[in-house]
Fold Adenine DNA glycosylase.
Amino acid sequence: MPSAVPPRPPAPPAPAELHARVLPWYAEHARTLPWRDPDCSPWGVLVSEVMLQQTPVARVEQVWREWLRRWPTPPDLAAEPAGEAVRAWGRLGYPRRALRLHAAATAITERFDGQVPATPEELRSLPGVGEYTAAAVGAFAFGVRAVVLDTNVRRVLARACGGTGQGAPSLTAAERRLAEGVLPHDPATSATWNVAVMELGALVCTARNPRCADCPLAPVCRWALAGHPAYDGPVRAPQRWQGTDRQCRGLLVDRVRSGTGPVPAADLAPVWPDAAQRDRCLASLLEDGLLEQVPGGYAFPA
DNA sequence: AACCCGTGGGT
DNA sequence: TACCCAAGGGT
């Protein structure tokens, strides 16, 4: 009988091997993005990170340039009405991010003397800045050694080290431990590692149709070596869209954005036939501070 | 912890 | 076409 070769799963690659493969790849393939310019201010980095929350790079670039030209520093933005931030947000989506960025600019102006703070702990205290964004701004703008765990990093580590096709539905303690374990000890190298793994996930180790033939980790990737097994973990419940409040709110805000002044209530009615839902969404937009009621109708907050 | 919050491009 | 996905955060 043929000697049974136990199909032992490959061990996760050592951190040093990951670094040796990913860092040179990044040096050659990194995109040139304006917020990666060494001269980009911490404020520019913060604005980019908030805009990039759930929004692709391609749609962010133009709006980011307009924002930074118009508001080069946090006090510049804080000096204007929040509604200006919402209007300038354009169609990036999740316009509450614009509101929170304006609130963050105000907090930076009042509590940090107009300077974006450098530590993830201080950054985390700003509106709209969560675990990921605080780590990213600390690392990319200030060279702080921080665990930057976005959807790209989680996917790359899940595949290369975990041998599974994707990360867990929500961030787990095990993923944090894994990411901390592979983070280079030297702060400067750790910052480059963070952006390099993110870039690999964005360009090569993509969610669908990963380009393993072009991946520097392919020879040591547990998922690739195992033959790209299908993901069999817990699945995230699909998000509905048609008929939801999100869709209704989006149309209402879009109607105000498309005009230059207050929009009369009568002009809001046609965008959503269900009057009850429309009224509820309008009330929630007022509650959120995304719109306000003025003599002429509804407008962005002045 | 599960759910809510926009938008547009790729497949 | 319908669905998936994108540098998440707040509650």
Summary: Residues 154 and 299 of chain A are 40 Å apart (CA to CA). The two ends of chain A are 82 Å apart (CA to CA). The beta strands of chain A are 292-294, 297-299. The domain at 12-233 of chain A is CATH 1.10.340.30 (Endonuclease III; domain 1).
